[in-house]
Write a structure and sequence with these properties.
By secondary structure, the chain is α/β, with parallel strands linked by helices. It has 14 helices and 14 strands. The strands form three sheets. Strands 3-2-1-6-7-8-9 form a seven-stranded parallel β-sheet, sandwiched between helices.
Protein backbone atom coordinates (compact mmCIF):
# COMPACT_ATOMS: atom_id res chain seq x y z
CA UNK A 1 0.00 0.00 0.00
CA UNK A 2 1.33 3.46 -0.94
CA UNK A 3 2.04 6.40 1.30
CA UNK A 4 -0.83 8.59 2.54
CA UNK A 5 -0.36 12.31 1.87
CA UNK A 6 -2.58 15.15 3.10
CA UNK A 7 -2.48 18.56 1.39
CA UNK A 8 -3.58 21.62 3.36
CA UNK A 9 -3.86 25.31 2.50
CA UNK A 10 -5.63 24.95 -0.87
CA UNK A 11 -9.11 25.95 -2.04
CA UNK A 12 -11.00 25.71 -5.31
CA UNK A 13 -12.43 29.24 -5.41
CA UNK A 14 -9.03 30.68 -6.28
CA UNK A 15 -7.54 28.91 -9.29
CA UNK A 16 -3.99 29.69 -8.17
CA UNK A 17 -4.59 27.76 -4.98
CA UNK A 18 -6.19 24.93 -6.95
CA UNK A 19 -3.23 24.86 -9.34
CA UNK A 20 -0.79 24.38 -6.46
CA UNK A 21 -2.83 21.44 -5.19
CA UNK A 22 -2.80 19.86 -8.65
CA UNK A 23 0.89 20.36 -9.35
CA UNK A 24 1.99 18.95 -5.98
CA UNK A 25 -0.05 15.80 -6.58
CA UNK A 26 1.38 15.50 -10.10
CA UNK A 27 5.00 15.89 -8.98
CA UNK A 28 4.62 13.41 -6.12
CA UNK A 29 2.82 10.85 -8.27
CA UNK A 30 5.58 11.11 -10.89
CA UNK A 31 7.96 9.91 -8.19
CA UNK A 32 5.70 7.62 -6.13
CA UNK A 33 2.85 6.40 -8.31
CA UNK A 34 1.06 4.43 -5.61
CA UNK A 35 0.51 7.33 -3.18
CA UNK A 36 -2.93 8.05 -1.77
CA UNK A 37 -3.78 11.77 -1.66
CA UNK A 38 -6.19 13.58 0.64
CA UNK A 39 -7.24 17.17 -0.02
CA UNK A 40 -8.04 18.78 3.35
CA UNK A 41 -10.99 21.11 2.71
CA UNK A 42 -13.37 23.25 4.72
CA UNK A 43 -16.68 22.01 3.38
CA UNK A 44 -16.25 22.64 -0.35
CA UNK A 45 -18.62 20.90 -2.75
CA UNK A 46 -17.39 19.66 -6.12
CA UNK A 47 -17.68 16.73 -8.51
CA UNK A 48 -15.35 14.15 -6.98
CA UNK A 49 -15.52 11.60 -9.81
CA UNK A 50 -13.14 13.57 -12.07
CA UNK A 51 -10.31 13.77 -9.51
CA UNK A 52 -7.67 11.20 -8.59
CA UNK A 53 -7.57 12.22 -4.95
CA UNK A 54 -9.89 12.03 -1.97
CA UNK A 55 -11.23 14.95 -0.02
CA UNK A 56 -11.30 15.04 3.75
CA UNK A 57 -13.21 17.53 5.90
CA UNK A 58 -10.68 19.48 7.92
CA UNK A 59 -12.06 22.35 9.96
CA UNK A 60 -10.71 24.10 13.05
CA UNK A 61 -12.94 21.80 15.12
CA UNK A 62 -11.54 18.67 13.48
CA UNK A 63 -7.98 19.95 13.87
CA UNK A 64 -8.58 20.71 17.56
CA UNK A 65 -9.99 17.25 18.22
CA UNK A 66 -6.96 15.57 16.66
CA UNK A 67 -4.55 17.77 18.60
CA UNK A 68 -6.31 16.89 21.86
CA UNK A 69 -6.52 13.16 21.14
CA UNK A 70 -4.13 10.69 22.70
CA UNK A 71 -1.84 9.44 19.92
CA UNK A 72 -2.01 5.90 21.35
CA UNK A 73 -5.78 5.58 21.68
CA UNK A 74 -8.66 6.56 19.45
CA UNK A 75 -10.87 8.47 21.89
CA UNK A 76 -12.94 10.77 19.71
CA UNK A 77 -14.92 9.77 16.60
CA UNK A 78 -15.60 12.34 13.92
CA UNK A 79 -17.26 11.23 10.71
CA UNK A 80 -17.17 12.75 7.26
CA UNK A 81 -19.79 11.18 4.98
CA UNK A 82 -18.98 10.47 1.38
CA UNK A 83 -21.92 9.68 -0.90
CA UNK A 84 -24.05 9.66 2.27
CA UNK A 85 -23.20 6.09 3.21
CA UNK A 86 -19.43 5.80 3.58
CA UNK A 87 -17.88 7.09 6.80
CA UNK A 88 -14.27 8.11 7.30
CA UNK A 89 -12.93 8.30 10.83
CA UNK A 90 -11.04 11.56 10.48
CA UNK A 91 -9.32 11.46 13.83
CA UNK A 92 -8.02 7.99 13.09
CA UNK A 93 -7.00 8.68 9.49
CA UNK A 94 -5.06 11.95 9.77
CA UNK A 95 -2.56 10.72 12.42
CA UNK A 96 -1.69 7.88 10.02
CA UNK A 97 -0.56 10.24 7.26
CA UNK A 98 2.99 9.74 5.97
CA UNK A 99 3.39 13.33 4.82
CA UNK A 100 1.61 16.70 5.07
CA UNK A 101 2.12 19.34 2.37
CA UNK A 102 1.12 22.97 2.96
CA UNK A 103 0.38 24.96 -0.22
CA UNK A 104 -0.85 28.18 1.42
CA UNK A 105 -0.17 31.50 -0.26
CA UNK A 106 0.39 34.14 2.45
CA UNK A 107 -0.85 33.32 5.95
CA UNK A 108 2.13 34.09 8.20
CA UNK A 109 1.85 37.86 7.92
CA UNK A 110 0.83 40.61 10.33
CA UNK A 111 -2.29 41.38 8.24
CA UNK A 112 -3.77 37.89 8.76
CA UNK A 113 -6.25 37.21 11.53
CA UNK A 114 -4.93 35.50 14.64
CA UNK A 115 -7.41 32.69 13.95
CA UNK A 116 -5.90 32.00 10.51
CA UNK A 117 -2.33 32.16 11.82
CA UNK A 118 -3.09 29.81 14.71
CA UNK A 119 -4.80 27.33 12.36
CA UNK A 120 -1.69 27.40 10.15
CA UNK A 121 0.69 26.86 13.07
CA UNK A 122 -1.55 24.15 14.54
CA UNK A 123 -1.12 22.15 11.33
CA UNK A 124 2.60 22.02 12.10
CA UNK A 125 1.91 21.18 15.76
CA UNK A 126 -0.33 18.33 14.64
CA UNK A 127 2.39 17.00 12.33
CA UNK A 128 4.94 17.19 15.14
CA UNK A 129 2.64 15.45 17.64
CA UNK A 130 2.18 12.45 15.34
CA UNK A 131 5.74 12.57 13.96
CA UNK A 132 4.51 13.26 10.42
CA UNK A 133 6.95 15.05 8.07
CA UNK A 134 5.55 18.37 6.84
CA UNK A 135 6.78 20.57 3.99
CA UNK A 136 5.75 24.19 3.50
CA UNK A 137 5.83 24.68 -0.27
CA UNK A 138 6.82 28.05 -1.82
CA UNK A 139 4.74 30.85 -0.33
CA UNK A 140 5.07 34.39 0.99
CA UNK A 141 6.08 35.16 4.57
CA UNK A 142 5.98 38.40 6.56
CA UNK A 143 6.12 41.15 7.42
CA UNK A 144 5.78 40.31 11.12
CA UNK A 145 5.09 43.76 12.57
CA UNK A 146 2.39 42.57 14.95
CA UNK A 147 0.83 45.00 17.41
CA UNK A 148 1.51 44.65 21.13
CA UNK A 149 -1.63 42.57 21.69
CA UNK A 150 -0.61 39.96 19.11
CA UNK A 151 3.14 39.96 19.67
CA UNK A 152 2.90 36.63 21.50
CA UNK A 153 2.40 34.85 18.16
CA UNK A 154 6.10 35.38 17.36
CA UNK A 155 6.96 33.15 20.32
CA UNK A 156 4.61 30.46 19.04
CA UNK A 157 6.17 30.70 15.59
CA UNK A 158 9.66 30.37 17.03
CA UNK A 159 8.63 27.29 19.05
CA UNK A 160 7.20 25.34 16.07
CA UNK A 161 8.76 26.55 12.79
CA UNK A 162 11.88 24.49 13.43
CA UNK A 163 9.87 21.28 12.82
CA UNK A 164 9.00 21.29 9.07
CA UNK A 165 11.39 19.33 6.86
CA UNK A 166 11.58 22.40 4.62
CA UNK A 167 10.09 25.90 4.58
CA UNK A 168 10.23 27.32 1.06
CA UNK A 169 10.06 31.09 0.73
CA UNK A 170 8.86 32.36 -2.61
CA UNK A 171 10.49 35.78 -2.22
CA UNK A 172 13.89 36.89 -0.94
CA UNK A 173 12.05 39.39 1.24
CA UNK A 174 10.26 36.53 3.03
CA UNK A 175 13.49 34.56 3.40
CA UNK A 176 15.18 37.55 5.02
CA UNK A 177 12.19 38.07 7.32
CA UNK A 178 12.18 34.46 8.56
CA UNK A 179 15.94 34.33 8.98
CA UNK A 180 16.02 37.68 10.75
CA UNK A 181 13.40 36.67 13.30
CA UNK A 182 14.11 32.96 13.75
CA UNK A 183 17.42 31.98 12.08
CA UNK A 184 16.15 28.52 11.13
CA UNK A 185 18.21 25.99 9.17
CA UNK A 186 15.18 24.53 7.34
CA UNK A 187 14.45 27.70 5.35
CA UNK A 188 15.05 27.45 1.59
CA UNK A 189 14.54 29.81 -1.34
CA UNK A 190 12.62 28.65 -4.40
CA UNK A 191 10.60 30.26 -7.15
CA UNK A 192 6.84 29.83 -7.26
CA UNK A 193 6.05 26.16 -7.86
CA UNK A 194 3.76 26.88 -10.83
CA UNK A 195 6.27 29.06 -12.68
CA UNK A 196 8.70 26.44 -14.08
CA UNK A 197 7.47 25.43 -17.52
CA UNK A 198 7.67 21.72 -16.74
CA UNK A 199 5.43 19.05 -18.18
CA UNK A 200 2.18 18.55 -16.26
CA UNK A 201 0.71 15.05 -16.52
CA UNK A 202 -3.01 15.67 -16.29
CA UNK A 203 -3.76 11.95 -15.79
CA UNK A 204 -1.92 12.09 -12.45
CA UNK A 205 -4.61 14.39 -11.08
CA UNK A 206 -7.73 13.98 -13.20
CA UNK A 207 -9.59 10.90 -14.39
CA UNK A 208 -10.63 9.97 -17.92
CA UNK A 209 -14.03 11.54 -17.20
CA UNK A 210 -12.51 15.04 -17.15
CA UNK A 211 -13.29 17.16 -20.20
CA UNK A 212 -11.85 20.69 -20.25
CA UNK A 213 -14.16 23.38 -21.59
CA UNK A 214 -12.34 26.39 -23.04
CA UNK A 215 -14.16 29.54 -24.24
CA UNK A 216 -14.05 29.87 -28.02
CA UNK A 217 -12.39 33.05 -29.28
CA UNK A 218 -10.76 33.92 -32.63
CA UNK A 219 -7.04 33.19 -32.96
CA UNK A 220 -4.50 36.01 -32.85
CA UNK A 221 -4.35 39.64 -31.76
CA UNK A 222 -5.91 38.94 -28.35
CA UNK A 223 -5.29 40.66 -24.99
CA UNK A 224 -6.48 39.25 -21.67
CA UNK A 225 -7.68 41.40 -18.77
CA UNK A 226 -7.67 39.66 -15.36
CA UNK A 227 -8.56 42.15 -12.60
CA UNK A 228 -8.49 41.86 -8.82
CA UNK A 229 -11.62 42.87 -6.90
CA UNK A 230 -9.41 44.48 -4.23
CA UNK A 231 -8.53 47.23 -6.72
CA UNK A 232 -12.18 48.25 -6.93
CA UNK A 233 -13.10 48.75 -3.29
CA UNK A 234 -14.36 52.16 -2.17
CA UNK A 235 -10.88 53.62 -1.67
CA UNK A 236 -9.44 52.64 -5.07
CA UNK A 237 -12.45 52.30 -7.37
CA UNK A 238 -12.33 55.71 -9.05
CA UNK A 239 -8.59 55.48 -9.75
CA UNK A 240 -8.86 51.91 -11.08
CA UNK A 241 -11.87 52.60 -13.29
CA UNK A 242 -10.06 55.59 -14.82
CA UNK A 243 -6.98 53.44 -15.44
CA UNK A 244 -8.88 50.68 -17.21
CA UNK A 245 -10.74 53.23 -19.31
CA UNK A 246 -7.42 54.61 -20.54
CA UNK A 247 -6.09 51.08 -21.15
CA UNK A 248 -9.19 50.17 -23.17
CA UNK A 249 -8.72 53.30 -25.29
CA UNK A 250 -5.12 52.30 -26.01
CA UNK A 251 -6.13 48.73 -26.87
CA UNK A 252 -8.85 49.96 -29.19
CA UNK A 253 -6.34 52.20 -30.99
CA UNK A 254 -4.05 49.16 -31.34
CA UNK A 255 -6.99 47.17 -32.78
CA UNK A 256 -6.69 44.42 -30.18
CA UNK A 257 -9.43 41.98 -29.25
CA UNK A 258 -9.84 42.38 -25.48
CA UNK A 259 -11.31 39.73 -23.15
CA UNK A 260 -12.12 40.30 -19.48
CA UNK A 261 -12.34 37.22 -17.24
CA UNK A 262 -11.80 36.17 -13.62
CA UNK A 263 -9.12 34.01 -12.03
CA UNK A 264 -10.94 33.90 -8.71
CA UNK A 265 -14.68 33.60 -8.09
CA UNK A 266 -14.48 36.75 -5.97
CA UNK A 267 -13.33 38.79 -9.00
CA UNK A 268 -16.27 38.03 -11.30
CA UNK A 269 -18.32 41.00 -10.08
CA UNK A 270 -15.42 43.35 -10.82
CA UNK A 271 -15.21 41.88 -14.34
CA UNK A 272 -18.91 42.51 -14.91
CA UNK A 273 -18.67 46.06 -13.59
CA UNK A 274 -15.80 46.84 -15.95
CA UNK A 275 -17.69 45.45 -18.91
CA UNK A 276 -20.94 47.20 -18.00
CA UNK A 277 -19.08 50.50 -17.70
CA UNK A 278 -17.01 50.23 -20.89
CA UNK A 279 -18.81 47.69 -23.05
CA UNK A 280 -19.33 50.39 -25.68
CA UNK A 281 -15.80 49.60 -26.86
CA UNK A 282 -16.66 47.18 -29.66
CA UNK A 283 -13.44 45.21 -29.20
CA UNK A 284 -14.21 44.51 -25.51
CA UNK A 285 -15.68 41.13 -24.49
CA UNK A 286 -16.68 39.54 -21.18
CA UNK A 287 -16.04 35.85 -20.43
CA UNK A 288 -18.27 34.75 -17.55
CA UNK A 289 -17.35 31.05 -17.67
CA UNK A 290 -15.72 29.83 -14.46
CA UNK A 291 -12.66 27.85 -15.51
CA UNK A 292 -10.59 25.52 -13.36
CA UNK A 293 -6.80 25.99 -13.26
CA UNK A 294 -6.20 23.53 -16.12
CA UNK A 295 -8.75 25.23 -18.37
CA UNK A 296 -7.39 28.64 -17.40
CA UNK A 297 -3.85 27.65 -18.43
CA UNK A 298 -5.13 26.33 -21.76
CA UNK A 299 -7.13 29.51 -22.34
CA UNK A 300 -4.17 31.77 -21.53
CA UNK A 301 -2.29 30.36 -24.52
CA UNK A 302 -4.74 32.17 -26.82
CA UNK A 303 -3.34 35.60 -25.88
CA UNK A 304 -0.39 37.65 -27.07
CA UNK A 305 -0.44 40.03 -24.08
CA UNK A 306 -1.93 39.78 -20.59
CA UNK A 307 -2.92 42.64 -18.28
CA UNK A 308 -3.34 41.16 -14.82
CA UNK A 309 -3.66 41.99 -11.14
CA UNK A 310 -3.77 38.31 -10.17
CA UNK A 311 -0.67 36.26 -9.38
CA UNK A 312 -1.60 32.93 -11.02
CA UNK A 313 -2.59 34.63 -14.26
CA UNK A 314 0.80 36.34 -14.37
CA UNK A 315 2.65 33.10 -13.62
CA UNK A 316 0.69 31.13 -16.21
CA UNK A 317 1.35 33.81 -18.79
CA UNK A 318 5.09 33.84 -18.04
CA UNK A 319 5.41 30.06 -18.15
CA UNK A 320 3.91 30.27 -21.66
CA UNK A 321 6.31 33.16 -22.52
CA UNK A 322 3.50 35.73 -22.75
CA UNK A 323 4.35 39.34 -21.75
CA UNK A 324 2.38 40.80 -18.84
CA UNK A 325 1.48 44.33 -17.86
CA UNK A 326 1.37 43.53 -14.16
CA UNK A 327 -0.93 45.74 -12.08
CA UNK A 328 -0.50 44.09 -8.70
CA UNK A 329 0.50 45.21 -5.25
CA UNK A 330 3.04 43.70 -2.87
CA UNK A 331 6.51 42.19 -2.79
CA UNK A 332 5.54 38.94 -4.51
CA UNK A 333 4.56 40.80 -7.71
CA UNK A 334 7.61 43.05 -7.65
CA UNK A 335 10.05 40.15 -7.20
CA UNK A 336 8.27 38.11 -9.88
CA UNK A 337 8.80 40.81 -12.49
CA UNK A 338 12.43 41.29 -11.41
CA UNK A 339 13.03 37.56 -11.78
CA UNK A 340 11.90 37.69 -15.40
CA UNK A 341 13.34 41.05 -16.38
CA UNK A 342 9.90 42.66 -16.59
CA UNK A 343 10.36 45.43 -13.99
CA UNK A 344 9.32 48.17 -16.43
CA UNK A 345 5.96 46.45 -16.86
CA UNK A 346 5.10 46.36 -13.14
CA UNK A 347 2.93 48.99 -11.46
CA UNK A 348 1.54 49.00 -7.96
CA UNK A 349 -1.84 50.49 -8.86
CA UNK A 350 -2.79 50.84 -5.19
CA UNK A 351 0.21 53.07 -4.50
CA UNK A 352 -0.47 56.80 -4.15
CA UNK A 353 2.26 57.67 -6.65
CA UNK A 354 0.89 55.40 -9.41
CA UNK A 355 0.23 57.58 -12.46
CA UNK A 356 -2.32 56.13 -14.87
CA UNK A 357 -0.69 57.83 -17.86
CA UNK A 358 2.61 56.08 -17.06
CA UNK A 359 0.81 52.72 -17.09
CA UNK A 360 -0.77 53.46 -20.47
CA UNK A 361 2.61 54.53 -21.87
CA UNK A 362 4.06 51.19 -20.70
CA UNK A 363 1.25 49.33 -22.48
CA UNK A 364 1.86 51.36 -25.64
CA UNK A 365 5.57 50.44 -25.60
CA UNK A 366 4.75 46.77 -24.98
CA UNK A 367 2.28 46.61 -27.86
CA UNK A 368 4.83 48.31 -30.14
CA UNK A 369 7.25 45.41 -29.77
CA UNK A 370 5.87 42.42 -27.89
CA UNK A 371 8.74 40.19 -29.06
CA UNK A 372 11.33 42.00 -26.93
CA UNK A 373 9.49 41.22 -23.71
CA UNK A 374 8.74 37.68 -24.88
CA UNK A 375 12.41 36.95 -25.69
CA UNK A 376 13.55 38.23 -22.29
CA UNK A 377 11.02 35.99 -20.54
CA UNK A 378 12.17 32.93 -22.52
CA UNK A 379 15.81 33.62 -21.63
CA UNK A 380 15.13 34.09 -17.91
CA UNK A 381 12.91 30.99 -17.75
CA UNK A 382 15.89 28.79 -18.72
CA UNK A 383 17.48 29.53 -15.33
CA UNK A 384 14.25 29.08 -13.40
CA UNK A 385 13.91 25.49 -14.60
CA UNK A 386 16.92 24.48 -12.49
CA UNK A 387 15.64 26.06 -9.26
CA UNK A 388 12.82 23.62 -8.52
CA UNK A 389 11.39 23.07 -5.06
CA UNK A 390 10.20 19.59 -6.08
CA UNK A 391 13.65 18.13 -5.53
CA UNK A 392 12.72 18.01 -1.84
CA UNK A 393 10.40 15.09 -2.63
CA UNK A 394 13.44 13.05 -3.68
CA UNK A 395 14.84 13.57 -0.17
CA UNK A 396 11.96 11.53 1.24
CA UNK A 397 13.70 8.41 -0.13
CA UNK A 398 10.51 6.38 -0.27
CA UNK A 399 10.81 3.09 -2.12
Amino acid sequence: MGKKIMIVGANFDDKGSQAKLFIVIDKLRQRFDDCEFFYAHNGEQFEESIYRFSKILYTKKVQSQILKANPLTNITKLFHKKDENVATDTTDLIPKMDLIIDVSDHVLVDESSMSDIEFYLDNIKLAKKYKIPIILMPQSFGPFKFNHENMHILGEMKDILFYPKAIFTREQDGYDELMGYFGLDNIRRATDMILPNEEFNISNVLTKFYRPEIPEIPDGNNVAIIPNARCFNKKYNEHSMDLYHKLFEELQSARKNVYIFAQSTSDLEACKNLYNAYGYFENLHLIEDEMDCVELNMFMKKFEVVISSRYLACVQAYRNFIPVLLLGTGVKYKELTELLGQEKLYYDILAEDCNNYDVVDALHDLLSDEDIAKTRIQTRMLNIQTNSCFKVFDELKWT
